[in-house]
Amino acid sequence: MRRFYQGILIRHNRTRFVTYGTITRLGSLTAAALVLSRGNPPGRVWFSIAFLGSGLRGGCDPYHGSRRAAAAQSGLRRGDAASLNYREITVFYTPLALTSLLFLSAHSIVTFFVARSQMAVESLAVLPVIGP
Predict the structure, then answer these.
(1) Predicted confidence band at 80 (pLDDT cuts at 50, 70, 90)?
(2) Which of 30, 61, 98, 116 is the 20 to 30 Å CA partner of 4?
């Protein structure tokens, strides 16, 4: 959901709020980790709690920012009915969906072509080191 709301912020030219949300998320993760590390729970417990808290905090900022951005852009006030048709929804979500598909398929495509190149075994061995 966080990325969905970040997409709305980016669409409405409010990219700095995406950065603020990321900084807030990392700050809350660090603060929660520092507070919880003073106790004596197992690492997986305090990491899970810190990660959950940062995820919730990181999702709240884009949510509130995107609501304000969408309302300001459309001129709608609370209680007004917004009518979207399927064409507008498709135009908005197609680039987001294609980005996800490209990200998921990029590694497989690169591996396919590297496996058919010269010195394939050596190149495949070094691929995890140089790639994400």
Answers:
(1) very low
(2) 30
Q: Which of 23, 106, 25, 105 is nearest to 60 (CA)?
A: 25
**Using 50, 70 and 90 to split pLDDT, how confident is the model at 102?**
confident
Q: What is the DSSP letter of 56?
A: H
**Nearest C-alpha neighbor of 18 from the set 64, 74, 78, 79:** 64
Spatial CB neighbours of 5, under 8 Å, sequence gap ≥ 6: 59, 62, 63, 65, 66
For residues 51 and 73, the model is more confident at: 51
Could you tell me the residue ranges of all domains in the chain? 1-82, 84-132
Model pTM?
0.47
